[in-house]
Write a structure and sequence with these properties.
single chain; 4-stranded antiparallel β-sheet; 3-stranded antiparallel β-sheet; about 15% helix
Length: about 160
């Protein structure tokens, strides 16, 4: 899903409620049009459910990947992002004369991107896959302490 940001400036030419309502209707119509286009051009890539937790010393990403094999999951750590991707296969797709009553489980390629805002200790990063959940622990580097800067007096400067 792509998210676009649009800057809107309101101008009150005659200050009427009608003008503001007309502008609001235009915004709603444009949003509906964009969502319909997004549904038509839907990507085959899906995003699994994820929890992203952060404390002063650790950032943890937990992703629900039930039914997957560990070798089908790829975890990549970039300078400012963690990317988790892979493919969940549908074993039933190969059977003939099989009809779904419901199809709620997502299959195919997936991708989760998590932006990292704090410096990470890359040597201490761990990833584990247990009971259908992938958990990636990203320990933060200790924050540098602020240093006090001495102010020079005018007679100290030469």
């Amino acid at each position: 899903m792509r998210l676009r940001y649009r800057h809107v400036t309101y101008r009150y030419i005659d200050g009427t409620q009608t003008q503001l309502e007309r502008h609001y209707r235009q915004l709603v119509q444009e949003a509906l049009r964009q969502s319909q286009q997004a549904m038509l051009h839907r990507s085959k890539t899906w995003r699994p459910l994820a929890d992203i937790l952060e404390s002063a010393t650790m950032m943890t990403v937990k992703i629900e990947l039930a039914g997957m094999l560990e070798e089908d999951i790829e975890v990549t750590l970039y300078e400012d992002a963690l990317v988790i991707s892979g493919v969940r296969h549908d074993d039933h797709a190969l059977q003939e004369n099989l009809y779904y009553h419901e199809a709620q489980i997502r299959y195919g390629p997936f991708r989760v991107e998590v932006f990292i805002t704090s410096p990470i200790n890359r040597e201490e990063v761990t990833a584990r896959y247990e009971n259908g959940f992938l958990t990636v622990d990203l320990p933060k580097l200790p924050a540098s302490q602020p240093e006090r800067v001495r102010i020079q007096r005018s007679n100290d400067i030469k």
